[in-house]
Amino acid sequence: MEVFWYLPTQGDQRYLGSAIGEREPSYPYLRQIAQAADQLGFGGMLIGTGQKQDTWVVATALMTETQRLRFLLAIRPSIMSPALSVRMAATFDRISGGRILLNIVTGGSAVEAAKDGVFLDHDERYALTDEFLTIWRALMRGEEVHFQGKHLRIEGGKLGFAPVQRPYPPLYFGGSSAAALEVAARHVDVYLSWGEPPDQVALKIAQVRRLAAACGRTVRFGIRLHVIVRETTQQAWDAANDLIRYLDDEQIAASQQAFARSDSEGQRRMLQLHRGRRDALEVAPNLWAGVGLVRGGAGTALVGDADTVARRMYEYADLGIETFIFSGYPHLEEAYRVAELLFPRLPLKEPPQPERQPVVREGAV
């Protein structure tokens, strides 16, 4: 079992929907979180993408501030060329000693895509992603690539050096639509689900496994969740309710209307869990959808004492989930809580030691 933490490059909060206790995403603060995650034994760190500080620039700076922490970094097929992306990823992999993981972000919102100059509909974005990953994986394998597709074309592309992780750093990917599941089956190493109830996650895992098997492949699985863990279950639920204490009905309604305009199937499924109702937030035992009242994307949290949260994690693990990508508000303090309360109850995979590239001196054979 692997547990990753999240880096809030958009800023951190103590209360959702309130400026009280709000924290700017300054570099010193982000460095504190990353170094805490590194020292506490988290296996990796997801850095958000979108209209925030640039993922790759932040990770490059933090790479020198950490020892073993791996960084799960976004590749955006609609706004990056596959050849440039390959060089960036392989370079980071070599300099960091194999500490890069790659999050393929197709983008679930046409509105957000337009802000980056992308005007493709939902299925076209996934068709482009399929072409992108076909090229990307071939380049990373050291092949000379000639490809002509509907969206992308490359002639004689070739990567001039090898990454540390072979054949390439692992590819992570999330998406709940039929088009997304097809891309996952053909290309990725780890399929990520948002924190839906276990029965719904089980169905998606079965779909991806079936589609991947038809392609002669196997896929691993992870889940993206928030977590609120305390010494007692009552304390955990009190903390959950405290997190949304300042939310009013107008804030919730405005957020829900904005999320409803997204063409993301995953976002639609998140909204269906609670439909914006405060009285329907425990959508499965100890799975709380309060975060999703005003936060897009992953909107559920595991809530409880450490034994209870660990038990719920084992239920997901029994379905095939190996990687848990967690958040908590605020992220610095909650990283310590998770490590101190939860880690002793989990069979954590030891983070790998960074690999070092051999120094080849001129004239050496």
List its salient traits.
single chain, 365 residues, alpha/beta, TIM Barrel, eight-stranded parallel beta barrel, two-stranded antiparallel sheet, 13 strands, disordered C terminus
Structure description:
This is Alkanesulfonate monooxygenase. The protein contains 12 helices and 13 strands. The longest helix is centred in the middle third of the chain and has 19 residues, at 122-140. A hairpin with a 4-residue loop joins strand 5 and strand 6 (153-157). The chain has a single domain (2-345), classed as TIM Barrel (Alpha-Beta Barrel), CATH 3.20.20.30. The strands form 2 sheets. It has an 8-stranded parallel beta barrel with strand order 1-2-3-4-7-8-9-13, surrounded by 8 helices. The protein has helices spanning 27-40, 55-63, 82-96, 110-115, 122-140, 178-187, 198-214, 233-243, 249-260, 265-274, 306-319, 331-342; strands at residues 2-7, 44-47, 70-75, 100-104, 145-148, 153-157, 171-174, 190-194, 220-230, 282-284, 287-288, 301-305, 321-327. The termini are far apart. With 365 residues, it is of the alpha/beta class.
